[in-house]
Amino acid sequence: MYDTILAGGSLTNEGAYFLNQKQRGLSPHTERQKMQQQQAVIPIHTIFTHTGFHLDEVEAARVLHIRGSECFPGIDKAGVRFTEGMKPRSDLWHDQSQILPIGCVPGTRFNDKDKDGKRIGGECTTTLVHKYLQLCEPELDVLAKVILRCDSEAGVKSTELAELIKMAHARGMSNEQVWKWATEILNAIHTQLSVQFAKVPGEKPLQQIFDDLLKKGAFPDDRARRKLEQLVKESMQRQEEITELSFITRCLYRTGIADVVDHIQFALTSLYADSLKFWELVEECKKATNRVQTLAFAKGRMFRIRILLLNTDNPRAIRASRHEKAGGATVTIIRKSRGGAGFFLDNRLPLDLTELVRMIRWLELPKNKDGKPTVALKWADLGQEGVLEAVPQWYYFRRAGQMMNGSLTHPNVEPTGISSQALIDVALHAFHPKEVATWKRVRNIPADASPAKEHTAKAETVITPTPAPEQTDVVVTEAVEETSSSLDTELEALARGAAGQRAGTTTPKPVELVAEEA
Questions:
Q1: How many Å apart are CA 339 and CA 420, to the nearest integer?
Q2: What percent of the chain has pLDDT above 70?
Q3: Is residue 105 part of a domain?
Q4: What are the distances in angstroms from CA 453 to CA 305, 447, 462, 516?
Q5: Residues 210 and 256 in one domain
Q6: How many distinct structural domains can be found in the chain?
Q7: Do 145 and 77 fall into the same domain?
Q8: Which of 170, 178, 158 is nearest to 315 (CA)?
């Protein structure tokens, strides 16, 4: 039986599929014929996805290649092209052109954002492909579940495939090279999950490969090497997690990949380069001069927050800005060389970007000669998640605490015309109801009763910020390598001060804004 499905010493995914279906007493041909009757048949010759793609797009395309031919004839041989931004056209237009966009055109069938740019809950590109193809394979389902977690939840580890892909992009590897590397790894994981090959002669664990590379003089920087040693050790403790580097190592050996060490060294080099860059960015953050602090109010509590604006094109600077040695920024504003910008909130605090989002969008609205918006929108409407039609250049991801004017995956978004100083000014006013009300009054924006009343709420039990997760979702927000204990201490002191004023009905006024030394 295995003679018919072994190819070049490794089990093909198609062979593993038919073997799995036969073992379950199912006829894959019957299932696929039934599915074909239910779905329109759409010939495809090219798959498109965005530059700086994520794990879910790679797996979505891989699944379409091996399981999508009945719905999309020709897709098993379709090439993959990378775009910096496609026009928002319909599925019908793409179908007639025989191209299939994956994750790069909001509102199309394989995009986890609707036409307004809002995230579709509980979905990623991979899960959307599974549902469309009506797949029901335990191995693919398990892989899709993990990929959805990595795409939509916080706490993704640096040594998981989703983060390794991001790091490979960050160190300048080509889209084609990263895609090929990630696809080969996913093929190996899928095959190993399907067949459960036993240990093979010459198989080495991740730790041994790393130790062998050290003996050859790899990873010379002491600080970055120590971090890498820690990451490898932690990965070895999680080697049953199916997208962990330690599990990937096992899969590559057991499915017959010839250049296992090269695949693993690619990942380790990305981790090492990321650590090196992190410390370089910490030094850049220390030198930054656009740094202020103020008080914020939320859930009956006062918090001191630090706001830092960085002129950089490197999204990893966000993580570095939160490090204690970089000043422990609570709100990081990124200003890119092409004019784009973004706000990134430290989610350890119970703060929210919604008022800031409303303020930024109000500034972007077209105005008449009297300075009043020509678009009729209520203040509350400006806080919509995703993309607001009247201000399409900004995207709001509330749960992640991010507002972005362009990103690695959407580089061609029109840059904002708001000045850097105005961005800082918005951040200074956005986190206290009184300051929001002042900002609106100066611009003759009608008062909104509900947020302005929040500062009179009864103080709640003190909330101590918890350490930030090691990684977060998407695109750019990540945790500090070392938690800033100074911030936690200062917040506790402020909380004690707030508790001492509970006899009154108002909260302390914001402190005078001062520049903080780097």
A1: 9
A2: 78
A3: yes
A4: 21, 11, 20, 31
A5: yes
A6: 3
A7: yes
A8: 170
Q: 3-state SS of 271-298?
A: HHHHHHHHHHHHHHHHHCCCEEEEEEEE
pLDDT digits (tens, 9 = 90+) for 448-507: 644 334 344 333 333 333 333 333 322 233 333 333 334 344 444 444 443 443 333 333
Residue in the structure block whose two tokens are 């295995």 = 2
d(CA 80, CA 90): 19
- 66: helix, strand or coil: helix
Q: Which domain holds residue 270?
A: 155-285
d(CA 35, CA 513): 63
Q: CA quadruple 468, 469, 475, 480: dihedral positive or negative?
A: positive
Instruction: Give percent above pLDDT 90 in the chain.
Output: 67
At residue 427, the pLDDT reads 98
Please tell me the predicted confidence (pLDDT) of residue 347.
Answer: 84
- Give yes or no: residues 261 and 337 share one domain: no
* Short-list 179, 51, 172, 147, CA closest to 104: 51
Return the DSSP state at 302: E
CA 293 to CA 308: how far, in whole Å? 9
Distance CA 465, CA 467 (A): 7
How remote is the C-alpha of 5 from its chain's centroid?
37
End of a domain among 236, 252, 285? 285
- Strand 6-7 relative to strand 391-397, pairing: unpaired
Tell me which residue of 193, 186, 55 sits closest to 124, measured CA to CA.
55
Q: What is the dihedral of CA 277, 278, 284, 290, to 10 degrees?
A: 130
Closest CA to 389 of 116, 156, 158: 116
Check whether residue 392 and residue 357 sit in a common domain: yes
State whether 207 and 259 are in the same domain: yes
**What pLDDT, in 10s, does the model give residues 79-133?**
999 999 888 899 999 999 999 999 999 999 999 998 877 889 999 999 999 999 9
Q: How confident is the model at residue 447 (pLDDT cuts 50, 70, 90)?
A: confident
Which residues have C-beta within 8 Å of that of residue 173, sequence separation ≥ 6? 270
Decide: helix, strand or coil at residue 151: helix
Closest CA to 249 of 202, 204, 215: 204
Q: How many helices (H) and strands (E) does the chain have?
A: 18, 12
Q: How far is CA 441 from each of CA 177, 364, 380, 448, rounded to the nearest angstrom? A: 53, 17, 16, 11
Residue 349 pLDDT level (bands cut at 50, 70, 90): confident
Q: Is residue 260 part of a domain?
A: yes
Task: Report the pLDDT value the prediction gives residue 362, as an integer from 0 to 100.
Answer: 97
What would the mean pLDDT of 428-440 be, rounded to a whole number? 96
